[in-house]
């Protein structure tokens, strides 16, 4: 209940959570003239900026540079005594995150957004109680409240992280020393990125995946090439695996699992990282008590991010997949503009949200896979171009991977694009824009791509889908 001794402050819009969904919502609302407050219990920028997207990319860049150093002779270069300092690598990552978090503080001041520290709870329609360490410190009200509280790592019952030997991504991001062996449970983007990082610095990495292939959200061809590439780097994989037991002591952990043939396997590892998904942060927010509906722990919203309760909205990782920072930011803008009454808005389609995995090699995709399109009864035309045939890839010494495109044969619509290889997390945006502009196959085929560039593989893949490829 609200503390009657605390005067309730009135706003046009309240935002709960200052991650990539929340802070973007607050800024867009301020731009539209709404008196806005944002409530955050910990870090401006949320998990993404502080403990996710940004600091992990810093770590992975260090890994990429170190790997390049190991192959200097391939480029006619000589490097003697190449080494690394894991604590300096981690500190660089933390410095970048802290700097960007401070930048969000600046944006709040610049846009005259009221920032309130604490944990917010929906205490009544249109009202939030804010507390710090269990003590109510503020009461705020508004006709519109956006929840953007994100998600937390999923925990396997009986195998809870201890922060020392059994890690979540947060602990894996800040190691004091480099483990000699690491078991990663889960081969989605997070698991694969950390597996790739630790392997770059010589750690023996083993990955368990309960589904029948790694990166199960990606196109099957991408998963196949990724598996081959990661195995070539010395990583070990068990797919269709079931983790049965995990016990940790002060220095290591023992794991027991069953492989795809039903064979019992066990091993001992210096560290174990759990990357088995996330759960929405809804506990204690008062959402269910006020009538907000949940489905398997996620907040149920319509295409405008509205919940079942008038004036209450939810965006980002606490709602339906894909659980990605850029999806949260885009939802934030749409949600706020809908609240402000702007016309000609379009809801966000999950199929228009690109996904990127910053491993070595990189992986990126948008839209339907070939299998998904066929499952919907769509007759497709599929193009594929291997990077090994690309001049720029050869010059870079990065020939591993391919670009694959999926078209509707009848309409020429670009249904999806799937890539694995160097810099594909940058290339994917070309296809995202093409989809947004409803570009046809004919327009893509007649678009000029600069030479020599990695993007030429995109053009050749489109040409290949219609039997017009030049270089394959």
Can you walk me through this structure?
With 472 residues, the chain is α/β, with parallel strands linked by helices. It folds into three domains: 8-152 and 279-339, FAD/NAD(P)-binding domain, CATH 3.50.50.60; 166-276, FAD/NAD(P)-binding domain, CATH 3.50.50; 361-465, FAD/NAD-linked reductase, C-terminal dimerisation domain (Enolase-like, domain 1), CATH 3.30.390. Helices cover 30% and strands 26% of the residues. It has 13 helices and 26 strands. Strands 4-3-2-8-21 form a five-stranded parallel sheet, with helices on one face. Strands 10-17-11-12-13 form a five-stranded parallel sheet. It has a five-stranded antiparallel sheet with strand order 22-23-26-25-24, sandwiched between helices. Strand 25 and strand 26 (414-421) form a beta hairpin. The relative contact order is 0.11. The model has no long low-confidence stretch (mean pLDDT 96).
Write the layout of secondary structure elements.
Blueprint: E1 8-10, E2 13-16, H1 22-31, E3 36-40, H2 46-51, H3 53-70, H4 86-110, E4 114-117, E5 119-124, E6 127-132, E7 135-141, E8 144-147, E9 151-153, E10 166-167, H5 169-172, E11 181-185, H6 189-200, E12 204-208, H7 220-232, E13 236-238, E14 242-248, E15 253-258, E16 264-269, E17 271-274, E18 278-280, E19 294-295, E20 298-299, E21 312-314, H8 325-339, E22 355-357, E23 362-367, H9 370-375, E24 380-386, H10 391-396, E25 402-408, E26 414-421, H11 424-436, H12 441-445, H13 456-465
Parallel strand pairs: 1-7, 2-3, 2-8, 3-4, 8-21, 10-17, 11-12, 11-17, 12-13
Antiparallel strand pairs: 5-6, 6-7, 9-18, 14-15, 15-16, 19-20, 22-23, 23-26, 24-25, 25-26
């Amino acid at each position: 209940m609200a503390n009657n001794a605390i005067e309730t402050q009135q706003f046009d819009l309240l935002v709960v959570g200052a991650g990539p969904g929340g802070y973007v919502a607050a800024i867009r609302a301020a731009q539209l003239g709404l008196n806005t407050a944002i409530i955050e219990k910990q870090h401006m920028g949320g998990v993404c900026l502080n403990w996710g997207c940004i600091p992990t990319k810093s770590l992975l860049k260090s890994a990429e540079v170190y790997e390049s150093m190991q192959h200097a002779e391939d480029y006619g270069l000589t490097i003697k005594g190449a080494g690394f300092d894991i604590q300096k690598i981690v500190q660089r990552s933390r410095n970048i995150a802290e700097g960007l978090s401070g930048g969000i503080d600046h944006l709040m001041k610049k846009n005259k957004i009221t920032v309130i520290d604490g944990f917010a709870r929906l205490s009544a329609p249109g009202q939030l109680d804010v507390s710090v360490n269990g003590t109510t410190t503020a009461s705020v009200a508004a006709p519109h409240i956006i929840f953007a509280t994100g998600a937390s790592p999923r925990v396997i019952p009986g195998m809870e992280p201890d922060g020392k030997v059994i890690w979540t991504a947060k602990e894996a991001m800040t190691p004091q020393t480099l483990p000699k062996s690491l078991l990663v449970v889960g081969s989605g983007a997070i698991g694969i990125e950390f597996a790739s990082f630790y392997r770059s610095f010589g750690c023996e990495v083993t990955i368990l995946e309960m589904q029948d292939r790694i990166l199960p959200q990606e196109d099957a061809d991408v998963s196949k090439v990724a598996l081959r590439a990661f195995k070539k780097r010395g990583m070990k994989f068990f797919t269709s695996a079931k983790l049965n037991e995990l016990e940790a002591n002060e220095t290591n952990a023992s794991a027991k699992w069953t492989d795809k043939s039903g064979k019992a396997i066990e091993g001992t590892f210096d560290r174990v990282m759990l990357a088995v998904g996330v759960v929405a942060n809804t506990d204690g927010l008062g959402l269910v008590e006020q009538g907000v509906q949940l489905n398997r722990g996620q907040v149920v919203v319509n295409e405008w991010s509205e919940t079942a309760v008038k004036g209450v909205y939810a965006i980002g990782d606490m709602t339906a997949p894909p659980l990605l920072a850029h999806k949260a930011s885009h939802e934030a803008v749409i949600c706020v503009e809908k609240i402000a009454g702007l016309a000609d808005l379009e809801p966000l389609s999950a199929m228009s949200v690109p996904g990127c995995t910053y491993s070595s090699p990189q992986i990126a995709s948008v839209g339907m896979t070939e299998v998904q399109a066929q499952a919907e009864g769509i007759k497709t035309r599929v193009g594929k171009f291997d990077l090994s045939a690309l001049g720029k890839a050869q010059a870079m010494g990065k020939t591993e991977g391919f670009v694959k495109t999926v078209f509707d044969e009848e309409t020429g619509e670009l249904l999806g694009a799937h890539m694995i290889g160097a810099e594909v997390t940058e290339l994917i945006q070309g296809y995202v824009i093409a989809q947004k502009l409803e570009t046809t196959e004919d327009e893509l085929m007649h678009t000029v791509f600069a030479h020599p560039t990695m993007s030429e593989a995109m053009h050749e893949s489109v040409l290949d889908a219609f039997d017009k490829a030049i270089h394959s």
